[in-house]
Structures
1.
Amino acid sequence: MPRRDDDKRSRRDDELGLRRALGDRMLPLLVAAMTFLAALALAGALAAAALSAHWQDGAASAVTVQVPDPDQPVQTQADRPEETRLDAVLRVLRSNKDVSASRSLSQADLSLMLRPWLGATAEVAALKLPAVIEVHLAANADEAAIAAALAGVAPGTSAESHGVWVGRLSVLALSLQACAWLALVVVVVVAALVVMVATRAGLASRRDAIEIVHGLGATDGTIAGHFARRITRLTALGGFLGALAAVPVLFALTELAAPFMTRATPLQGPGFLNAAWLAQPIWVLLPLLPAVAGTIGFLTAQATVRRWLRALP
Amino acid sequence: MIRLENVGLRYGAGTKAGPEILRDISFSVAPGGFRWLQGPSGAGKSSLMRLLQLALRPKRGTLVVLGTDIGTAERRALPALRQRIGMVFQDFRLLGHLSAFDNVALPLRIAGRPEGQIRADVGEMLRWVELTEKADRRPAQLSGGEQQRVAIARAVVGRPSLLLADEPTGNLDDAQALRLMRLLGELNRLGTTVVVATHNDALVARHPGPSLRLEAGLLVDDG
């Protein structure tokens, strides 16, 4: 008996017969596909933004200093007869206010860097290698002046800035980000068009019923409300299904992106970041997609129906 | 209550406008009045009824219904007026997916009446049209006469100020037609303005009353 009452109530609430006119398969399926694409586009936009910021943050101010013959004594400084060229360079760096941090790589670090070229068993210590120092500069530091000061105490010392390739990467990341946002806008527009077409089909198939309730005194708001409620349910359902389908794909993409989350410096020092950091915003936004889909459905249905009703007196 | 002055109506607009199907129609019906609307098929009776039901607006002239000039009224003012008008259509115009009960309840739900009052009023109307036992049936499960009775119950359940009936007895047997005419008379005596369109001269002869006669879109008799 309660089931019969529920059936009666749902039929009563469906005065325009929209459950049949706006079926619960095609529209949710299309919206699910749109939501899936939106989730990917959103993840792409957020990842590109995070990568861009991360690269700039980690490497824009980074400089690699190479000191040839690091263990040789400094020739020109009589007051420090025991000081090596490496010590002299580190002293200059640490006393410079434009240098925020500097770290000389150990033999183990150098072995790790050279392993891809020389192999794991290479006797790095036997090679005559320069000392390598990872340097982070303060904002607006004068890189040329620092390089000149280093060459002054240890001739032949070179300082290589990472700003150029970081700039190029940033432009690439920004371009990817713009494409992702554009794709997201296109998906939203297409979703709204899909809802509009579905609503118009519903209006066409229920024209007689609409004219009857309109003639009995139903307002535009009442009629549009019937459509909007039905469409909102269907689009929110589609949004939920699409977001659900995106979860495993986003997990896989997060795993694939993990190697790119190290600091953007060729010297892989401390600072590996958890891959979840990149994806964190998408996990916050993903549950909101069904609500966004429902909102798009509601607004599009309201606008479409009200516009259609203006043709009636 | 109803006043028409030189009302003209044509379907379509601009270059797609058709010929005038109602021309220079002028008459009035006082509150609580009754009018037969007679004329042969194609005379314009249904179009005039649609004008009075506010399903159309006149292309020219003045149409006043329930004290409102329909030609100049804002669109948003019309739903409240329509809720005060009951209409019995020639083709019933019931909603096929709703039960007889829900079809009759429709005007009350649109008007926002409480569900308890709706159950009582609809139950009373269904008893009057002898369809209590078939309240859960859908229109397709009812005969033509039963559908007509549901349509009549829907038109009067809200106790409208103006009741319009377009060929209301077309699908009724003599006994049902007599009951309907008695109901219309009773509503009219209680203050409801009633306009009944028919091409059944015998029906008019059995229930004499003031009559309007349309021929080819023109009002040829107002008495």
2.
Amino acid sequence: MDQSLSDFVSEAEDILDSLEDSISQLMDISTDDHRKPDIINAIFRSAHSLKGLSGMLNLDNLSDLSHHVESLLDSVRLNKIALDDDIVDLLSYGVQLINRMVHAVAEGAGDSSVSVDEFLRELEKLGSEEVSGSAPDLSEFVDVPEGLTEVLSEYEEHRFRDNIEREVPLYRVICHLPFDTFDVRLRDLSEGIREVGELLTTLPQTDGVAEGTIGFQLYFTAREDGERLRDRLQSDGVSLEQVLYRQRRPQTMADSFALEASEGPEGERGYFEDEIKGVSNTVRVDIAKLDNLMNLVGELVILRSNFTSIAGRLREILFDVGSDSLLELEKTSVQMEKMLIDLRDGVMDIRMVPMGQLFSRLQRVSKKIARELNKKVNFEFSGGDTELDKMIMEEMVSPLLHMVRNSIDHGIENSEERKAKGKRETGMVRLSAYQQGNHVVLEVEDDGAGIDLEGVRRSAIRRGVLREGEELSEEDILSLLFKPGFSTKETVTGISGRGVGMDVVRKEIENIGGAVEVHSVKDRGTRVTLTLPITLAILQALLVRTGSRVFAIPMGSILETIQLESGDIRTMQGIEVVNLRDRTLPLLRLENIFELPRADDGNETYAVIIGMGNRIMGLVAQELLGKQDIVIKPLGEAFAKSVGLAGAAELGDQSTVLVLDVAGLMLEAIRLGGLGKRV
Amino acid sequence: MAKRILVVEDSPITRSLIISSLEDLGDFTAVEASNGFQALRKLPEYLPDLVITDINMPDINGLEVVRFVKENENFKHIPVIIVTTEGRDVDRERGLKLGADRYLIKPFDPEDLQRHVRDLLG
């Protein structure tokens, strides 16, 4: 092949890689994710580059096709066409064709060997309305310099307008950076901004900058509090200010309804009013605001518990006197507690969304994956009305997607194989959700080939995770799947090879205090079970003392507490254990995990029985101090990586206790010495 | 002295195609920038005699490069040619309004590019 063509193929493949990456990102995120415009724009830019590139090399068919994909994306990014499932499908199809053309070029067949007729027919059905007329300058809506619009690309201008219409708070970062390092610093800054919001434009400044420095203005929108943004982004030479909205706003949908309603004839008014009322029945709230509200409620609950202890002390003082006021204080305190619980439940309820929302998103992507892998799969869903904290649900999108991909790609066999095994030709992937106490359980189940335990074992030996000849139980072999970088497939397929691995899945789930388990039977199928807390915002915890330290254990992970008599604790194979009914449970001492001085073994010791998934163990405590609602606050940097700690919580008396992360703790115990295996 | 031309373009192939179509012009040095940041860095460093820039680039777009050149006392005398893909009329108009001297549509005819460069470099 001619050198310029082979250069072309390698550059085109790079572009295709990032194109496919972006499309799969687009499928993973929710429709209102702030990264969405950036991702769509990245896809647009890739198609645009391909068009230019192939045009320069006279690959006219490829250039035309890229042009069509590019214009489709242009309409999407400028909001002329809504991005729905059909468009995403069409887009993936177009990219597939581009891919084929590039390969045809690489193999010397030329780009005319791939037919694009069907794609063009689909495209024609869409049509696109031209947005005409010139809109007023941006400076009429927000406090920006008048000429700003003129230096923006058409797309950047559109992003400004779109954000302004939705009234997203607008910020400007002004930075003066040393010339030597400005690109690195600026890239850091841009990344920091993209984590919290949408970066609209980066403008180099042309005057008023000191020798050896260069100035920039970055405009971005974010729904985060200005103070917090400042903490995040401000540094030496970088300052942040909010850009104020002016009174006049672009006309939104609701405005035009209102306008027509007031101008229309009498009979139509009612109809339009209903339309508007329909719109205002729901309010979209930033989850950060709910978090804040929840924190306040949590702190109120803690403050309230002070009343009880004050009343208790007063009662001691006034014991003989007896006092109506004291009685009233106690009554009020009890009433207040009831109302606070109602308030807490109310706020909590707002955060709850039915799993069905996530299911329908997963179903769409799953179908696409099955189609791309050419597998016949039925998707079943149950428990769509099970409610889960919105934040947790968002965290679950990529782990669930990963597991569904695994099921389709590695689990479900192709039709011939299934027939040979006497299975139904069409495979099944089932997602179910149900509530179990304070947890929501999510299961991804398939009737595929099951996990090849021997393959996992061999792969582990090859990677040096396992020694040749080492005997492992089925459960231990399955746990190898969660080791970083572990994959049983020799060559990772296009679909499952992307995105997160099972180690990342486990990490994400443990980060929010959940647990993950795999169950698999050869030729019958695989079931992955996620056990998640219903909410992260507030939780009931048991306060226990070991030695001189007080820890909070989330009630959700406590099965029961038992009092230990002397002699109850025995030692088996070097591990302390205790009998609970017909089971023998390993015991865990917090002072061993956190390297504290050994607590005094008095007679009055307790075992708090904790469980996650199917593991159960006992935690030794000297004293149980009672239940309390706590609001978990993250630990400072210094403790950020402490295993077994979920955070800290402030108690009513202003003291702070450490909150245990039970799942992490159990894993650490296992790591430290074979603890916690089922006995 | 050899003329210096700063070529700002994120596609390596398009960049090399631009540079190779300039080869017939004889004595010149191409300074390459694969994004807007690099362009800003190389402008004062090389003080080019001409800038050729794409518009659609990540981080800093070509329009901002044009404005940076044309609003800066040290650079405003440097002619700028925009090379962009067809269809982006709004962007092209803005480029010219910001002071760009010429524009070319990709895929461009190398002879057109040579003619514009010769005109602008005198």
3.
Amino acid sequence: MSIYAYIFTMALTTYLIRVIPLTVFRRPIKSVFLKSFLHYVPYACLTAMTFPAILTSTAALLSGAAALMVAVLLAYRGKSLLTVSLAASAAVMVTEFLLAFVK
Amino acid sequence: MNWSEYKKGVHTGLPVGLGYFSVSFGFGAMAIAQGLSALNATLISATNLTSAGQFAGLTLIVAAGTLMEMIMTQIVINSRYSLMSLALSQRMGQRIGFFPRLLIAFFNTDEIFALAMDRKEPLTVPFLLGLGTLPFFGWTGGTLMGALAGSVLPSDIRAALGVMLYGMFIAIVVPPAKQEKPVLITVILALVFSCLFAWVPQLKSVSAGISIVLCTVAAAAIAAWRFPIAEEQEAAV
């Protein structure tokens, strides 16, 4: 399938999700379950996408694990998005640099 | 066009624009590492303007998933935007008409939404468009730069840059999980489900897009059932 079919489909779906409540359905959501569900969706989704995929996203299992640990630790200490992202990336590079020596 | 309002919006959006630039650099590098062209990676960012949805979309493109899977995945992952759009719509009031809304909707990301809702003065169309300007160029430009850098860098460096996106996801999830027990439980549930799909032999054949959708829906539904938001707020008092 053409990559443009994918890109068009994902862009249109995302846009419709954003535009319909802003133009057509302007009433607030009343269902407590639905409101709660939508509140928890980002956390569930980001977690499912990150783990265990992060472990296999780099050249070695160990460097992916290092990125995970560094990111969780810094995020737990309340560091910014940028700091956490850069530190995770640096952890991968340092670990793989060290692994090259071990080999 | 009220340029003073537009400028205020641009100014407010500056930190988000810088943040988006660096994170989307990771997306660009990752897209290249997975075989996309720099142009297509940039096109995805310019038309979607969403981190998690694009990331899942990239996974599906690489795995040659179906368009139905793509639609379902985007609906589940981006469903939170519908809630934000509803909230933003209430906040905008009746003064802002139908056509500006068509444009403003495109820029409704987590961070832009947060900044818009944070404003004390009434929201105006030029302010909201100004707010979206730098994040849009930051996100698109960062993707292009990341993709170009990714094309010339060796594959292990590309993978290290790609990890930035995971770093951002972790930075979004951990602080609220630390503070709110229901969020922590949602995260743990999603972790367990995600590992099941990755490691249990019978579940491994489920495609990447569908497994993300199933993990998300299951974890969020259990959390919503056990910890409805109204009750949780009462319990916190």
